[in-house]
């Protein structure tokens, strides 16, 4: 087993080359955006969170990584 980033660096396509894949649903290893309580309401953090969950970023991830990286569910 290797993480997707190592597979991508090695020129592998996890969505195509993997013998098995973990489910993205309820995966404890998903990346999350965190901050300190002091910055929780910072407009920059809110803007980043909005951008990361946008349909545009989801589409970029899908096109760029061809299923090897799974975007968060876009917010409409």
TrEMBL record:
Q: Would you identify the family this protein belongs to, as annotated?
A: Belongs to the NlpA lipoprotein family.
Membrane topology annotation: Lipid-anchor
Record keywords, A-Z:
Lipoprotein, Membrane, Palmitate, Signal
The gene from which this protein is expressed is metQ_4
Recorded source organism is Klebsiella pneumoniae subsp. ozaenae
Q: What is the official name of this protein in its record?
A: Methionine ABC transporter substrate-binding protein
State the compartments where it is located.
Membrane
One GO cellular component, as annotated: membrane
Q: Domain of life, per the record?
A: Bacteria
């Amino acid at each position: 087993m290797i993480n997707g980033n190592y597979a991508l660096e090695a020129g592998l396509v996890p969505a195509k080359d993997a013998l098995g894949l973990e489910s993205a649903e309820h995966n404890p290893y998903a990346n999350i955006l965190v901050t300190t309580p002091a910055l929780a309401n910072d407009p920059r953090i809110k803007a980043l969170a909005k951008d990361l969950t946008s349909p545009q970023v989801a589409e970029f991830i899908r096109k760029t990584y061809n299923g090897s990286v799974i975007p968060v569910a876009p917010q409409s």
